C-alpha cells in the first residue's frame, strides 16, 4: 500500500533544490593573520578554531598557525591545513610575516621582540600582568593593540569577556563539586544531595555574569544557592533571571560572615570595574568555616575577594588553609580548552572580518566603535585613560588619533 504524500510536501517537490544567488564575500585587502601557540603560557586554548580559520581563508585572507597550537584543545594541524591555513614551525615566522597576530595571552617580552612595526595585535590584556615596559615597546613599534577585555558593543556589553565569564562561572561550580569529594580531601558531599539527605550550600559572592552562571550551574546540580552582592539591582536581576530559585542578600559584613561560615562551597565572583576585587571574606571568617569546605576564587586575577586566596597554577591548583580547600587558578576557561576556543572564535571572528573588509586598520577602527573601545595602543600612542592613570603615562583619545590619520 502506498502512503499518500503530505499535502504540499510531495517527494518530487521536496527533493528539488531551489536555486538562490548567494553573495560571495570578497575582502578588500588580503591580510596575513598569524596564530602562535600558547603552550609557553600554560594555556590550552588557541585563538582560532579550525572552522574560524576556514571562514577567514574563504574571505581571501592568509592564516598561518604555529604547529601544535591547537593540540591541547584537540585540534590537529591536519584540521587547520584542511581549513586552508598554513601550519608553520616556530613562532618566528608567525610574528615576522603577519599583518595581524591573534592570540589568547598578552605577548611576552620574547614575543614582542619578534614583532614588526605597525602590526595589529589582538589578544587578552590581563591588567594584573601588564607592565609599562610592554606598553612602551608596543608604542615604539607603532603597533595597533586591541584587548579582548575592552571590546564593547554599543549597549556597553563586553561580548568576549561575557563569554569567558559564563564559562568561568560554570567551571567554578564544576570544580567545587570535585573538590568536595572525600578523595579530594573535601567534606564528602554531593552538591545536590539525595532523597532524605539535604543538598550542599553554595555561597556565591557577586551577582554579575560569573555569579549568575555559577548559580545556574549550582542549581542544576540541585544545591542550595545563596548569592550576595553590594548592588541591590544586581540581586534583583539575578532573582528575576533565575525565577527566585536562589536566596539573595546584601553583602554587608554580617551577612557575609553568617553565610560563609555555614557554606560548603564559596565561589568568589565579586569583580571590581578596572580595579582590584573587593575583599569580602576575612581570614578570621575563613578560619571559622567547616573543615573540608571549598573556596573557588574565580577573580584571583583581580586580586581575589577572599583574604586567604593566592594565585595557584594548573599543575598545583589547590592549597589548604584553616582546613579549607582553596582553588585559585586565574584561568579557569583553559581547563575546557575546546569549548572555550569555540566560544572565543564565535565572538572574535566577526571582528576580524571587519578589520579584513576595511581598506586599512584606520578605516576599520573608524567604522567600528567596538574595535575603538578595544584599542589600547595605536601607532605610538596609549589610548586608555585607565592604563595611563595606572602607570603615570600620558594618553590620547582614539577618536582623535583615527581622525588625524596618523
From TrEMBL:
<dbReference type="Pfam" id="PF05222">
    <property type="entry name" value="AlaDh_PNT_N"/>
</dbReference>
<dbReference type="Pfam" id="PF01262">
    <property type="entry name" value="AlaDh_PNT_C"/>
</dbReference>
<dbReference type="InterPro" id="IPR007698">
    <property type="entry name" value="AlaDH/PNT_NAD(H)-bd"/>
</dbReference>
<dbReference type="InterPro" id="IPR036291">
    <property type="entry name" value="NAD(P)-bd_dom_sf"/>
</dbReference>
<dbReference type="GO" id="GO:0042853">
    <property type="term" value="P:L-alanine catabolic process"/>
</dbReference>
<feature type="domain" description="Alanine dehydrogenase/pyridine nucleotide transhydrogenase NAD(H)-binding">
    <location>
        <begin position="180"/>
        <end position="328"/>
    </location>
</feature>
<feature type="domain" description="Alanine dehydrogenase/pyridine nucleotide transhydrogenase N-terminal">
    <location>
        <begin position="34"/>
        <end position="168"/>
    </location>
</feature>
<comment type="similarity">
    <text>Belongs to the AlaDH/PNT family.</text>
</comment>
<keyword id="KW-0560">Oxidoreductase</keyword>
<protein>
    <recommendedName>
        <fullName>alanine dehydrogenase</fullName>
        <ecNumber>1.4.1.1</ecNumber>
    </recommendedName>
</protein>
<dbReference type="InterPro" id="IPR008141">
    <property type="entry name" value="Ala_DH"/>
</dbReference>
<dbReference type="InterPro" id="IPR007886">
    <property type="entry name" value="AlaDH/PNT_N"/>
</dbReference>
<dbReference type="GO" id="GO:0005886">
    <property type="term" value="C:plasma membrane"/>
</dbReference>
<dbReference type="GO" id="GO:0000286">
    <property type="term" value="F:alanine dehydrogenase activity"/>
</dbReference>
Amino acid at each position: 500500500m502506498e502512503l499518500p504524500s503530505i499535502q504540499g510536501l510531495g517527494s518530487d517537490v521536496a527533493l528539488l533544490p531551489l536555486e538562490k544567488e548567494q553573495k560571495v564575500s570578497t575582502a578588500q585587502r588580503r591580510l596575513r593573520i598569524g596564530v602562535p601557540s600558547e603552550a609557553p603560557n600554560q594555556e590550552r586554548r588557541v585563538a582560532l578554531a579550525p572552522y574560524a580559520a576556514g571562514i577567514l581563508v574563504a574571505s581571501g585572507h592568509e592564516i598561518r598557525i604555529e604547529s601544535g597550537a591547537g593540540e591541547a584543545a584537540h585540534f590537529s594541524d591536519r584540521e587547520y591545513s584542511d581549513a586552508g591555513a598554513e601550519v608553520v614551525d616556530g613562532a618566528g615566522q608567525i610574528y615576522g610575516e603577519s599583518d595581524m597576530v591573534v592570540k589568547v595571552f598578552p605577548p611576552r617580552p620574547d614575543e614582542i621582540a619578534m614583532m614588526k612595526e605597525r602590526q595589529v595585535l589582538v589578544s587578552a590584556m590581563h591588567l594584573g600582568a601588564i607592565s609599562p615596559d610592554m606598553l612602551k615597546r608596543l608604542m615604539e613599534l607603532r603597533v595597533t593593540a586591541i584587548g579582548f577585555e575592552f571590546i564593547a558593543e554599543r549597549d556597553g556589553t563586553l561580548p568576549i569577556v561575557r563569554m569567558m565569564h559564563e564559562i568561568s562561572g560554570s567551571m567554578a561550580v564544576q570544580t567545587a563539586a570535585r573538590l568536595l569529594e572525600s578523595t579530594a580531601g573535601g567534606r564528602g558531599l554531593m552538591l545536590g544531595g539525595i532523597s532524605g539527605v539535604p543538598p550542599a550550600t553554595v555561597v556565591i559572592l557577586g551577582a554579575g555574569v560569573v555569579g549568575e552562571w555559577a548559580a545556574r550551574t549550582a542549581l542544576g546540580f540541585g544545591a542550595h544557592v545563596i548569592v550576595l552582592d553590594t548592588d541591590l539591582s544586581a540581586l534583583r536581576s539575578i532573582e528575576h533571571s533565575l525565577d527566585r530559585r536562589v536566596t539573595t542578600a546584601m553583602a554587608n559584613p554580617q551577612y557575609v560572615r553568617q553565610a560563609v561560615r555555614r557554606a560548603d562551597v564559596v565561589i568568589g565572583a565579586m569583580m571590581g570595574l578596572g580595579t582590584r576585587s573587593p575583599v569580602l571574606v576575612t581570614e578570621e571568617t575563613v578560619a571559622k568555616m567547616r573543615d573540608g569546605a571549598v573556596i573557588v576564587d574565580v577573580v584571583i586575577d583581580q586580586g581575589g575577594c577572599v583574604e586567604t586566596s593566592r594565585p595557584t597554577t594548573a599543575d598545583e591548583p589547590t592549597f589548604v588553609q584553616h582546613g579549607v580547600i582553596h582553588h585559585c587558578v586565574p584561568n579557569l576557561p583553559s581547563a575546557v580548552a575546546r569549548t572555550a576556543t569555540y566560544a572565543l572564535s564565535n565572538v572574535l571572528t566577526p571582528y576580524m572580518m571587519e578589520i579584513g573588509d576595511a581598506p586599512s586598520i584606520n578605516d576599520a577602527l573608524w567604522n567600528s566603535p567596538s574595535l575603538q573601545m578595544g584599542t589600547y595602543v595605536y601607532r605610538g600612542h596609549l589610548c586608555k585613560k585607565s592604563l595611563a592613570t595606572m602607570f603615570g603615562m600620558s594618553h590620547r583619545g582614539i577618536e582623535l588619533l583615527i581622525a588625524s590619520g596618523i
